[in-house]
What we know:
Elements: H1 2-18, H2 30-50, H3 55-64, H4 69-73, H5 77-101, H6 103-113, H7 128-145, H8 149-167, H9 174-181, H10 187-193, H11 198-201, H12 211-215, H13 245-250, H14 264-267
Amino acid sequence: MLLYFLAIVLICIAIEYCADPVIPRAKGTRKRRWPTNIALYVINTGLSAALPLSFLAVAHYADENGIGLLNWLNPPYGIDAMATVLIGSLSIYIFHRLHHSVPILWRFHRVHHSDNDLDWSSTLRHHPGETFFMILLQSATVFAFGLDATALFALLILHIGIDFFTHSRFMLPPRIERSLQWVMITPQLHHIHHSSWQPETDSNYGIDFSIWDRLFGTLNRQPLRSMDSFAYGIDTVDPAVSNDLDWLLTSPLVPDSTDWAETPEHARTYRP
């Protein structure tokens, strides 16, 4: 798993430097962002290792004890695996939407969205509180439905690859982009989700497949404003502190601030 993770990171870094970026990179941001984003990943990895709970362990326990809907129904393995992938994918979509709509969850999730210069390292940028909530929500889902551990592990591998791919700063050829959008979340779709403007941010919640955004009416295939005015981050988070590790860790205790916003229109673009 570690070698797979490192290989994905190196591939994304290489592609970013060789391909045309989605929008030009702001100069000097890597020196501040990369150490912070990597530090958050190290903290989250330690938290995940310390917690006596994981959705894969829950899946094994549910299977051994016949707990959960799929274990009760006991369908053929192919159907069991397919149902696990679909339920797992849909649950991530739902949890992601909840993190944007439930105030306390948004306080933690906005750490991820406060990154104002998106690249591969943004994949690593999550508050430990969000990691904790996601472990609980995912474990509860796995337990309730009796999801298959092997199919879940395959979905995890897929998520890691797609997550780095969609955060990376490059643009696919238009024909490939349009084709892939019918099936999966692409860099363009996810970069729109990371817009600093809420009407764009509140779209493209999927992590893997685009079917859920299409089904629930949240798919946004093109930016709603010109690329000249497109920006990453959160308009109500001061960019002066948006990459400070200590501020990010304590930020769930702090409401969004609009004091520094340039105009009233900017101040209204995100949650009060």
